[in-house]
Amino acid sequence: MRAVLIGWKELAPGIRHFEFYAEGAERFAYLPGQFVSLSAVTASEKKITRAYSIVAGTGQDNRFAICLNIVEDGQFSPHLFGLKPGEGVDLKGPIGTFVLRNPLKDSILVATGTGVAPMLPMLIEALGRGEGQQFTLIFGVRHAPNLLYAEEFQELAGQYPNFKFLPTVTRPSSDWTGLTGRVQPHLVAEIGERRDLDVYVCGLNEMVSGVRELLAGMGFDKKQIVHEKYD
Ligand SMILES: Cc1cc2nc3c(=O)[nH]c(=O)nc-3n(C[C@H](O)[C@H](O)[C@H](O)COP(=O)(O)OP(=O)(O)OC[C@H]3O[C@@H](n4cnc5c(N)ncnc54)[C@H](O)[C@@H]3O)c2cc1C
């Protein structure tokens, strides 16, 4: 299969939402939270493969979107940023077990940076089921303009009283009135005395490992922690 670029838009400096068409797929169906594996022979003349969480897509018209930040000296992300509409890369997937647990429980989702990408389709699916569980998304970034898909999450929070969106910023500007600092203290505060929650965590290893250790120390079972590490 090929992922053919339809177009992209910039979400924040160095961060783009890319829309692709899955060419050669009979039907591109995915479970919210899953990722695609993209490969290409890049400037280094080596074939490089990288994973990207699916942030959006109907699954019906074989379109899907991913969101990524450029790693300036990275081997693959600059290649994707250099693609023009109509150009493509090899595509495998959708793959992955970072998906909603069944049955759904009251859950806290924790993401930093582009780790928020899989959370959007997961929340749309979970809230759309209308089963009434409580969901909280704690989303951490350095600077407020990097709160990717904030409008979509605010909209979900307006639509569903059982969803709470908690963005937090580690380097707030003077006009930021929301939460500040890393995600961990906010997670502890949201958990309170409860130990019956599922926690979904996605982002770079340092945060994901830190949150897993924190939860283990609070008495959470491994099965209650669903995680995806980007590096
Ligand atoms: C299951 C899975 C899903 C992923 N989904 C996404 C996604 O939705 N969006 C996304 O941007 N990335 C995602 N990644 C990371 C992605 O696969 C690449 O690792 C990333 O684009 C860097 O690749 P590169 O070849 O440009 O950099 P490399 O040449 O591989 O350089 C690696 C360096 O970049 C760092 N790095 C890796 N990912 C990131 C990142 N996202 N932000 C900052 N530094 C990073 C690593 O720690 C390392 O220092 C995912 C990874 C996995 C395993």
Describe this protein's structure.
There is one protein chain. With 231 residues, the protein is an alpha/beta fold. It has two domains: 2-95, Elongation Factor Tu (Ef-tu), domain 3 (Beta Barrel); 107-229, Rossmann fold (3-Layer(aba) Sandwich). 20% of the residues lie in helices and 37% in strands. The strands form two sheets. A six-stranded antiparallel barrel has the order 1-2-5-4-3-6. A six-stranded parallel β-sheet has the order 10-9-8-7-11-12, with helices on both faces. Helix 2 links the parallel strand 7 (107-112) and strand 8. It starts with a strand and ends with a strand. The mean pLDDT is 96. The site of flavin-adenine dinucleotide has 20 residues, from strand 4 and strand 5.
Question: Strand order across the biggest sheet?
Answer: 1-2-5-4-3-6
The structural domain count equals 2
- Text of the CATH class of the largest domain: Alpha Beta
- Helical region count? 5
- Topology-level CATH name of the largest domain: Rossmann fold
Set out the fold topology:
Blueprint: E1 2-12, E2 15-23, E3 35-41, E4 47-56, E5 63-69, H1 77-81, E6 88-95, E7 107-112, H2 119-128, E8 135-141, H3 150-159, E9 163-169, E10 179-180, H4 183-191, E11 198-203, H5 205-217, E12 225-229
Parallel strand pairs: 7-8, 7-11, 8-9, 9-10, 11-12
Antiparallel strand pairs: 1-2, 1-6, 2-5, 3-4, 3-6, 4-5
